[in-house]
Design brief:
heterotrimer, B: Ubiquitin-like (UB roll), 5-stranded mixed sheet, globular, C: alpha+beta, Uridine Diphospho-n-acetylenolpyruvylglucosamine Reductase, domain 2, Enolase-like, domain 1, 5-stranded antiparallel sheet, metal-binding (chain B), (2Fe-2S)-binding protein (chain B), iron-sulfur (chain B), oxidoreductase (chain B)
Chain lengths: 550, 161, 274
Amino acid sequence: MSIEFRKEYFADERDDNLNEVGKPTQRQDALGHVTGRSPYFDDHLFDGLLHIRCVRSPHHHARIRRIDTSEAERMPGVVRIITGKDVPHNLNTLLSLLDFGLDDEPLLSDKKVAYKGEPVAAVVAETERAARDAVAKVRVDWEELPAVFDVEEAVKPGAPVVNEVYPKNLFVYHGRYDHQKLRYGDVEAGFRQADRIIEGRYQMSPIEQAPTETCGAIAAPETNDRYVVYTSTQALFFSLDTTSKLLKTPSNRLHFIGGTVGGGFGGKVDSLHEPMAVLGTMLTGRPCKYIFDREEEMQVGAPRGAERWYLKDGVMNDGRIVARKFVGYFDSGAYTRLSSYAIIKGVGHLPGPYTIPNVYADVYCVFTNRTPATAMRGFGITGVDFAIEAHMDKVAHEVGIDPIELRILNAYRDGDMKAHRRLAKNTALIECCQVAAEKAKWPISQAASQASSLRDGGGERGRLPAHTATDQNGLVTGFTAQSYAKKSRATQPSATPPPQMARHESAPVTPRVEQPRPQPVQPASAPPPPPAATEQRHTRFSSISGLRRR
Amino acid sequence: MAKKPVQFRLNGSEKAVFVDDGQNLLDVLRRGVGDLTPKYGCGQGTCGTCTVLIDGEPHLSCLTLAETIDGRQVSTTAGLARGSELHPLQAAFMDGFAAQCGYCTPGMLMAASALLERNPDPSREDIVEAISGNICRCTGYEPIINAILAAAKAGGARRYG
Amino acid sequence: MPVKVETYDRVEEAARALSASRSARFLGGGTLVMRAVNAGDQSFDTIIRLRDPDFRTIRMQGDGLVIGAGVTMAALVANRDAAFLATVARVIGGPAIRNMATVGGNLFASGNYGDLAVALLALGATVQLAGSGSRSMPIDEFLRDRDRDRHATSLVQSVTVPRPRDPAAFRFTKVSRVKPKGVSLMSIAALLPQSGGRVQGARVAYGAMGPTPLRAIAVERALEGQALDAAAIDRAAALAVEGIAPPTDALASSWYRAEVAGVHLKRLLAGERR
C-alpha cells in the first residue's frame, strides 16, 4: 500500500523521521480475523444460555392499555417475561452520563410507544424459537394515536406530542431555548449589503449503519456477586454506566468485556442490549443473550437521523459570501439518544470551512414518531456539509463562478476568526481544492492555483465582528440548566476561558497560528472589537450543556 | 423436543451430534460442535457471513436444515490453516489488509476457497462473482479481491484435510 | 410451537403428508422455508422433506425440458440442455444461494425474488403437481392461484419448459440496485418467436411488478404480428404498465417502477446489452 505525500504543502510542519506513522503496519487483530478466532461477543459459549426476544410495537404511536402475558408465560421453554415494572430505573437518556438532557426513554415501555418496533416486553426462554413463539402469544391492548413523521409538521401547534418530556417535540438547549443558536455578526445587515440572495433547501433520509454483526450482549452470573457481560458495544464504559444506572446496580458489580466488534459505524453505542441481558440474568440466575436479528437491526436499530436544512446566503457579484443563515432540523426520532449532541457538534462546525463575516443558525432537535436516531460516522457534520457543499455549487452556478474557485475564494485561512470564535489554524481547504482540481484535470485560474492557506488570512479577518445581533427567540420556561458545563463554568474564575486542549503537547510542530490569549482583540483600522466580548464568552466554549426540569 | 442424531465430517474429522427439529447448521456448528468460525449476520441468506462448504460447494449454513448434512463433508475457516501454517488465502488477507472488523472474513474465505479449488487462476470478474453473495461493510471489496488474486498467484488452491 | 421435520423417500408420500396438513411447508433448498423458520414464522409447524433423487433430475421430453422441482440453480446453470435458462439462473443470488435454491421453490418466491418463475412464465412452462391430485397446469394458472392458498398443500414435482426453437427469441433482464448482485427491482422476460420477420406468439412477463410474476398482456398485443423495429418497440414500451399496478416496497415506489418499466422493456426488446 503506498501513501502519497505531497511534500510541496506544509513541508515544515511534518517530521518525517517517525517510526510508525506513514508506514504500513500489520493490524494486531489480523491473525484472529483470518483464522476466524477473533472473539466477538457471541463467540462465548455458556451452558444453559437463555435467549431474550422483545415484544415490539406494530404501531408508530400508541397508548398501551394492557399487556397480557399469561398465555405466553405458559408456553414451553419460557423462563420469564420482563415488563417495564421489572426495570429498576426505567427511564434514561444516554447523555445523562454527561449530565446533558433529561431522561426520556424507558428500556421497556409500559405507558405508550412512540415508534414502530419499540419494545414493551421481553421473553426469556430456553431457545430462541421458544422465545419467538412466546412473543407471538403476548397480547397488547393498543390505543393507536395520531403519529407525526415530518420535522416541520412535528413543531407546528397541535402536532401529536411524541415525547412527553419535551411537550413541544423540541429538545431544550441550555435550559433556555428550543433550539441551538449561533449568532456571529449581523446576518440581516449582511444580506442588505449583498448583491444577491441565494437560498436552498436540502434534506437527507435516515441511514442505517448496517453492521454485519448485529447488536447484542450476553450476560452471565459471575462469582463475587458480579455479572460478566460480553457485548458488541462500541462504547464499553457508556454501556457499563448505562446498565449500572438502569438496573440501580453499582458498576463494580458489572464486569464488561468488549472490544471485538463486527462493524459498528456508530450504531453500537446505544446500550440497549447490555442492561436487558443483565436484567434477564438477575431475574433468572442464568446466562442470557439478547441480540437483534437482521430485521430488528434495520427497523429498530437506531440510524443516522434525517436532517433538513434551509440555507440563505448573501453573495457579492465577485463571489464573496458576506452572510450565511442556517435553519436546520434534526429528526431525533422518538427519543433523544445522541441527536441533541449532534447538533451542538454541527453548530460548532458552521458555516463550514469558509470565512464569512456574518453567520446565523437556528438548529432544532425534533422528536417524531420515527426510529430514534443515533451516532454514525461524523454525525452532526455530514448532513450539513452535504447541504453546504450543494449550496456552494448552487451559488457558483448562480453567480457564474467556477465552483472550485468559489470555494478557494471563500475558504478559511490561517488566522481567520471562525463563527464559534476560535482562530482557524492548520487550515488546508485551499490546498485540498487545488489538488482535487489537479487530479480531476479541472482547470482553475492562476490566482486560485496560487492561493495559499498560509497567506492573506488573519488581520481584519481574524477579528470578532464589531457587532453581533442577538435575540431571545425560542425562549422556553419550565426548564433549567444545571449542567456539567455550567458547573464547571461556575468554578472558573471570572471570565477566563477554559484552557484550550493542547493537541500536540510534545509534538515538535508548532501550530501556524497561536490561539489568542484572552486579552481583547487589538483594534486596528477595523471596526472596534465588540464591547460585549465577555458577555459572549460565557457560552463560547461550552460544547455540551445540560438541563434539568425545575 | 425430539433430538435427531447427525453424523458428518467437519474439516476432515468425524462429528456426531444431536440436533433439534428445525435447527439450522450454523447453530449446530457453533453451539453443537463449538466451531465458532462461521458467523450469524442475517439468518436470511443475504450477507454470506455464515458461508461454509458442503461437499466442497459454498452453502449458507443459516439456511441449511442441520439434519440434511448427515453423511456429508462440511468445511469451515477453522479447517483452512494447517497448524500454524496459514492457508495462502489467509496469508494474503493478512498481508493485503483484507480484514478490517473481520466479521465477514470467514464467509469470504470459504467463498474464495471454493473458487480457487475449482479455478486456480481466476480473473477479477470470476472473483467478483464468487464473492457476490458475501457482504462486507468496512474493509471494502477492493482489498478482498486483490487478496484473492494474490492468493491464487501464491498457489491458493492447495487443499488441506 | 417448535417445528417438526418429516422426511420421505418418495414423492407420493411427501405429497400425501403435505396435503394432510395446512400447517406444513415443503422444504426445497431452504432459502425460503429456513428463512421463515429463522424468523419464527408462526404460520407453519411442520417441514416436509423429500430425498427422492428423481426430484433433482433434468431430462428431455420431446421439445421440452422436464426439470425436477428439486433441481438447484447451480445444476440448471451446469446443464447443457438448459442453456437457455442459464442466463436467468446465473443472476439469481451468489454461488451459495445457487447451490441451494431450487426451481420448485422459485415458483413460490414473492416480492423481489422469483426471477426464474418470470422466465418460466414467458416461456409458457407447465407445472406438474404430485400426489393424489396429480395433474399438470399452465404456469399462468399456477401463479394466478398461488397466493389464494390453492397450492399451499400441493407438491410441485416438476416443471416442463418448451425449449425455444431460436434461442435468440428468448430474452431476460434483471434490474437491481446493487451490482453485481442484488434482488430484483424488476425483472423482465420475453419470448419473441418470429416468423417471416414478424413476431408470432409473443409472451412478455414481469417480476416484482405485482404479487406474483405476471404477463404484460398489452405489450404482447402491441408486438403481435409486428416486425421488431423501433416503431413497434416504442409502441410496446409505451404500454409497459398498461393494466399493471406495480407495488411499492423497500427498493422502489410504484411510481418509479411505472416510470422505468418502459425504459427497461425497450432496451430488452431492442436487444441492447447493458
